[in-house]
Amino acid sequence: MSDLPGWTRTEFAAVGRTYATYRKGAGPGVIVVHEIPGVTPPVVTFAEEVVGAGFTVVLPHLFGTLNEDGSVISGVTLLARLCVRNEFTKLATNVTSPIAGWLRALARSLHEQLGGPGVGAVGMCFTGGFALAMMVDAPVVAPVVAQPALPFAIGRKRAADLNLSPADRAAMRDKAADGCPVLGLRYRSDRATGTRFETLRHELGDAFVAVEFDGRRHATLTEDRQQEAVDRVLAFFRARLLVDS
């Protein structure tokens, strides 16, 4: 595993879990949660763009590669390993993944250090819904949900599920109703996202802002990057986090 040149590595411990984090930039905080197969160069490129837009970015390293491309085979192998890790909920519905507690603690710590109106959060694919979970009991005021893929969209019920417990789902609705919008990104024919955008429209109404692209591709901000998607995320962060600028 290589390091991330120019990024400061530390370890963050909370709720009985410890993961490495990488930090760079200045300004309000944004947590970028990587996708499978890990913190790949396209993930780092996106994170660097957020830094360049005037934010302090923290990249947790939860699994997989670090600053290396992953092959299809390595991605499948990693997915099999993740399926037996209890901090991620893969098939159960109406359950919040346990990793959410650690991510919320990270958001609280970052906000305490930097101040401002709150923290931004981006989840992608396997971690896509984590930005929703981070809205609960944490100062996340700019959540971005990029092609959320948990629980795996096997069957109608799982395809519509938001990877949230009933209590967390209610808290998400309340926070959105109080003025916290949610930005969602996806390709319209991406089967991995199931019908979660329809669920979010039903749950949040106008507080859910969907940015959708034609096609069956998947990773809107990284491997299948759309410049409009990146631009919309940066504009969202500016509007929500740079309110005093």
Task: Give an overview of the whole structure.
The chain is 34% helix and 23% strand. The strands form two sheets. The protein has an eight-stranded mixed sheet with strand order 1-2-5-3-7-8-9-10, with helices on both faces. A two-stranded parallel sheet has the order 4-6. Strand 9, helix 7 (196-204) and strand 10 form a beta-alpha-beta unit. It has a single domain, classed as Alpha/Beta hydrolase fold, catalytic domain (Rossmann fold), CATH 3.40.50.1820. The chain starts with 7 loop residues before the first strand and ends with a helix. It is of the alpha/beta class and 245 residues long. The chain has helices at residues 41-52, 72-82, 99-114, 130-133, 156-160, 166-177, 196-204, 227-241; strands at 8-14, 17-25, 29-33, 38-39, 56-61, 65-66, 119-124, 140-146, 182-187, 208-213. The protein contains eight helices and ten strands. The mean pLDDT is 92.
Q: Please summarize the sheet with the most strands.
A: 8 strands, mixed
Distance between the termini: 39 Å
Q: List how many beta strands DSSP finds.
A: 10
**Which strands sit side by side, in order, in the main sheet?**
1-2-5-3-7-8-9-10
Order of helices and strands: EEEEHEEHHEHEHHEHEH
CATH fold assignment: Rossmann fold
Overall shape: it is globular
Count, helices: 8
- CATH architecture annotation name: 3-Layer(aba) Sandwich
Average pLDDT over all residues: 92
What are the defining features of this structure?
245 residues, alpha/beta, Rossmann fold, two-stranded parallel sheet, globular
